[in-house]
Amino acid sequence: MNDDEPFLTEEELALHARLKELQQEHADLDASIEALGHMPIPDQLMIARLKRKKLTLRDEIVKIEARILPDIIA
Question: Which Pfam families does this one have (predicted)?
Answer without folding.
Answer: DUF465 (PF04325)
